[in-house]
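[Solved] Which block belongs to which protein?

Original post:
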Amino acid sequence: LGMRVAVVGAGVSGLTATKCCLDEGLEPTCFEQSQDLGGLWRYTEHIEAGRPSLYPSVISNTSKEMSAFSDFPFPEHFPVFLPNALLLDYLRRYAERFSLREHIKFGTTVVSIHKHPDFATTGQWNVVTEAGGKQTLDVFDAVMVCSGNFSEPSLPLQCFPGTRFQGQYFHSRQYKHPDVFQGKRVLVVGMGNSGVDIAVEASRVAAKVTISTTRGAWLLSRVFEHGYPWDMILNTRLMSLIKTNLPGPLSWWLINYKVNQWFNHENYGLQPEKRYLPVLNDDLPSYILTGRITIKPGVKEFKDNSVLFHNCSEEEPIDIVVFCTGYIVSFPFLEESIVRVENKHASLYKYVFPTHLQKPTLAVLGLIKPFGAIMPVAEMQARWVSRVFKGRETNVSLPVPQNAAQTGQVLSLQFGLTFDEVLKTEWLVYLDTLASFIGAKPSVLGLLCTDPRLALTIFFGPCSPYQYRLEGPGRWEGARQAILTQWDRVLKPTRTRVPAGSSSSFPSLLTVVGLLLLLAAVIFGF
C-alpha cells in the first residue's frame, strides 16, 4: 500500500495538494465539508458556517497567465482577469483533467487531528471526520492542511471606545449586494482589497461613503503600463533582482515612484507610512476625485449614530459600518500545540512545516499572502511537501529543534509569517527557494547556451508558473511552448478588433531590451 495522506479542504490548495500527491504515487483522501469543490471561489448566495464567503462581483487580482497551475494554462479565450465564476470553472477543469474528484469526500468535516500514539516512530495521525452525523476515525501517514484563512472573521468593534453604536454593522464576509447601502451614509473600516471593492460598489447607491484607514495603502490598477496586466510587468526576474539587491531606502523609493506614476497618493489621502501589500482597484482614484468616496484616518470612537476619527474634531454621522478587518487564522481541528498562532505569527518553516514536530508529516498550505498569485505558490508548496512526505527530498533537512519556542522565533524571522505586514519575502524568491529544494528552478544561464530565446523570455518577461516545469521532477513537455505563447493568450480575448497592418510589439521589444541587459544578468549570477 502507498502512503496515505489526508488533505483538508478542496479549494485551490487542496486540489493541487491532491494532484501533487498522486504525481508522487501517494494515496490522498481529500475531505471537503461542503458539497462541491472550489473553496473560496465557489459563490453561494447564503453564508455557510465555517466556509469563506464571496460577493458576486469579485474578480481575480492576478492575471490568468500568472495565476495558472504550472502544467495547466487557462483557456486562451478566458479574460485576462477572471470573474469568480470563470475561476471556479478553471478549478473544475483542473479536477476533471487530473481525475481528482474520485479522491474527494464531499460533505465530510474534519473534526480533529491528533498525533497517533506511536507518532515518534511512525509520524502517523489519527483523523476524525464526520459525515451525515456519523464520526469516523482513520489513521493517515501524513496530513496537508488546506483549509485557508478566510473562515473566521475578525470583528473588532469592542476595540473601539464608546461601542454604543446604534446603527447597522457587519463584517465584509457577510456582504453580498450593494442594495443594503441604498441612500445610507456608509463607513468602511479597513483598506484591503475587499474594503475598497465594497466602498466602490456602495458609493453607486449610498448617500455617502467614507473609508477609514490607519495606515493608508498603495493602490495598483489591474491595467498597468501600456495596458498590460500589472503582475506580468512587475513580477519578472529582472524586477525581482533589482528589488532584492537594492538597499532598503532605494527599493522603497523605486516602488513609491512606480505606484505614484498613476496618481499622487499623498494628494488622495492614501500614502502609506510603511511598505504594505498594495491594494488592487481600478476605480478608487476617480471615485475620490468625483467626491463619491472620502478617505479618513483611523476611528477614534463610535457614538450612537456617528463616528469620531483621529485628528478630526467633527463627528461624522453614519448609518452602516462595514468592518473589512480581515480574518483570524484558526485551525479548530488541530491541537494548539501543533500549529501555534500567537499575535498573528505562526512558527512554520518556510510558512509550511510546524517547526517543533519530531516528524515532518504535517504541512500547512496556502497560508502565505504574497505580492503575486497564490495558486502557483500553493502548488509549489504541494510539490515540495509531497516529496518530503515521500522521503525523496534530500536537499532540505527540516529542523527538529530542542527548544521549539526559541527556534520558532528564529524561523519566524527567517521566513516570518506575519499577516498584518507585507512579507519581506519576494513572491519570486519564495517560489525559487521551494523550486530549488525539488530541483525545478529554471537555470537561466544554462538555457542561455542551449535556448537563448527561452532564457531571455524567462529573465526579462513575466515569471509565469510554467517556468517551474522546464526541468526536474514533474517536468512538463508543454512548458516551453506555454511560456513562448503567454502573450498570445493575454491578447486573444482583448484584440477583438485588429486594424490593418498592426502587430504586437511587446515580445520583440523584450528581445531587444533583453540583449542590452543580458550583461547585467550575468553579473548578478543568473
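(Second protein starts here: sequence line, then its C-alpha cells.)
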Amino acid sequence: WSLPNAEHYALQYADGRQTYITESVSGRPPGPQPRWLRTPPHRFPFSSQNRGEIKNGSILRLTTSPDQEAERLYSGIQSNNVDVKTDSLKKLASLSQDVTFAQEFINRNGLKQIFYIVEEGNNTGEILAHTLRAFTELMEHDFVSWETLSAAFIKKIVSYVNMNTVDASVQQLSLSILENMVPSSRLLFELVKKEVTVDRLLTHLQVTNAQLQLKAMALLIALLLAATDAERRDMMQYLREKNIRQFIHKNIIHSSEPLGDEMAHYLYVLQSVSLNLHERRMRTSMDPYSQEQRELLQSLRQTAFESESETPASNFSTERRRSLCAKEFRKLGFMNNSNPAEDLRRAPPGLLALDNMVYFSRHTPNAYSRFVLENSSREDKHECPFARSSIQLTLILCEILHVGEPCSETAQAFYPMFFGQDHFFEELFCICIQLVNKTWKEMRATQEDFDKVLQVVREQITRTLSLKPTSLELFKTRVNALNYSEILKLRQTERLHQEETLAVPVLELRERLKPELLELIRQQRLLRLCEGTLFRKISSRRRQDKLWYCRLSPNHKVLHYGDVEEGVHSPPIESLPEKIPVADMKALLVGKECPHMKEKSSGKQNKDVLELAFSIVYDVEEYCLNFIAPTRYEFCLWTDGLNVLLGKEMTSERTQTDLDVLLSMELKLRLLDLENISIPDTPPPVPKPPSNLNFCYDFSHAEQ
C-alpha cells in the first residue's frame, strides 16, 4: 500500500488471541525489512514465523508494529497518570501472549520495569493484578530464566500469598508465579517451601473461591513433585496430621460445584504421590537377618496359633519348636515353611506384602484368624494359602494402582474413595484378601487353580474400581456382590457381544473380505522388502560386528545385498553389489533347516537365534543366502515377503494377527448401520411373485 514508514505497521489477527503476523526472511521480497520482522539469533532464539498458517477467511487488521507498541507501553507503564498506567498494564497483559511482542518488550528491559512496580510499589488492586498477569505471560515464552528473579521480587510475591487482605485475583496470580518457580531450580524450591508454609496453603484450600483453591492445590502439588523422597514423606505425613484427606473428600470431591479437569489432575497426582510412598517397601526384599522383620513374621504365626495352643512353644525343645513353627508357617500358606523369609525375597512386592499381612492380622484379628484356621482345617488340596495369596494380591494391587510408576502429566483418573479413608492401601488389601478366600471357595479351587483364582480376583477388583465407588464400604459391597458366577456371566455376555460378528451372514462376509485383505498384507510385505533391512553376520565361532543390507528392487525382480558400514541405515540399491534374481529362488528355509544353523548343531544352540534364522535357496547349484533377522517382527515380514515372491502362502503368526485386525476393523465399518439389529442366521424368504404383473401407478391423478 506504499505507506510511509512501513516498518511501523503490522498485520494482526482481528479475532481470537490477536497475534501478529510474522514471516521468515526467505518469504519476504528484497529490500529493507521492518525491525519486528528481523529475527537475529542472538536476540530472538525462539522466533516463529506464522505467515504460512493464515487460513482463507481469516480477518486481519492493520495495526502498529510490535516494536512500536512495545515502546509505547514501556513508556505508558512508567507514567505518573494512574489511568494511563492502568490502561498500559492492561494492554501489556493482553499483548504479552504474543511471542513477537514479548520479544520486543523484553528487549527494552521491560521486565525490569515490571519488577520495579512490584518491588517498590504499594499497589494491591487492579494495577498489581495487571502487572502480575503481564509478568506471567512474558515468562511463559521462556526467554528469561526464573532463576534470574531478585530476592526482593520473590519476597513480595510470597507476601501477597501470606497476606489476608490482598485481592483474590492477586493471590491467584502470586500462587501461579510461585508454582512456576518451584520446578525451575532447587534453590527456588527451598525458598518457596520455607516462605509459604503448608498451613498457609491449606488455608487457601479452604476458601470458597474455586480458582484460588485450584492455584493453592497447584502450588502444593508442585512442591510435592519437586521435593526429595524424604521431604515428600515428611510433607505427606504433615498433610495427614492436618486431615487434608477428609477436607478434600468433603469440600472438593463432594462440593456442589462440578470438579474441573485441572483439579481432577491434581487429585490424581496427590493420590499417586501418596501411593508411591509404598514404593520403597515394595522394592525392598526381606532381610532374613533383620531382627525387626523376623519379629513381624513371627507375629503372624503367634496371632494365628499361639492363642489356641494350650502349651506355650517355649516349653518345647529347640527341635520340636522348630518343627512346630514350620508346620504353622505351612498352615499360614508359606511355600517355604522352614524359612518363610524366602517367600518375601521377591521384590516387588517385597516387604510391602509383609506389612499388609501384619496390618490385616492386627486391625482385623478375627477375620485373620478365621481365614487361617478355616483353611488349615480344609483338605490339603483345597486350602487357600494365606501368605502366598497375600504376596500375589499385594503385587496385583501395586499394578492396578500403579505404585512405583511416575505421575502422568495429563491423567485425571483418581479414586474418590482414596480420599475417604486413612491407610487406603492397607484397608483395600484387607477387603481384597477376604475376597480371595471367598472367591476360592466359590470356585472350589485347589492349589493348581491358584493363578486362575487370582486372575478372577484381579478382574473383580478392576471392574469394581472402574465404577468409581465413593467409599471403601461401597467398594466392599460391590466387589463382594461381583461373585464368581457374576464374573462368568459378564465374560459370557462380552464374548457373545464379540461373537455377534460370528453370525452365518457375517462369517460369509468375512470369507469374502479375506482375499482382498490378504492381498493388502502381501503388498505391505513386498513394500517392506523394498525398503530393506540391516542384518548382522553370524560366523560359526562368534557373532561378528559386520553388517550387511538386503532389499528388493522396486519391480520385485531382484534381491540386492551387500556389506555396509556401521551407521548406514538405508543404502541405495546401486551401492549393493550382489544380486539374486527372484526367478532363480527355489525355496525358503527357516529355523533348524537353515545351513548356518546346522553348522552350529554340534554346540549348544541359541534358541533365540534359531527362531530368527531363515535362508534362501537359489540357482541350479542350490546356493544359500543366510539371514538372522534383528527381531521376530522382521523375521515374520521377511519370511512372508519371500513366500509371496515364491508364490506360496504367508505362514507367519504376524500374518494371522494382521488379518484378524484388518478383518475386525472392516467388519465393524460394514456393520455400523446394523447396530442393535439382530442378524438372522438364514436370509429372509423371497416373497412369491404377484399373481398379476399388469400394474403401475397412475401419477396423473393427484391424491386428494
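Accepted answer:
You had them paired correctly. Confirming on the second one: The CA atoms of residues 464 and 477 lie 10 Å apart.
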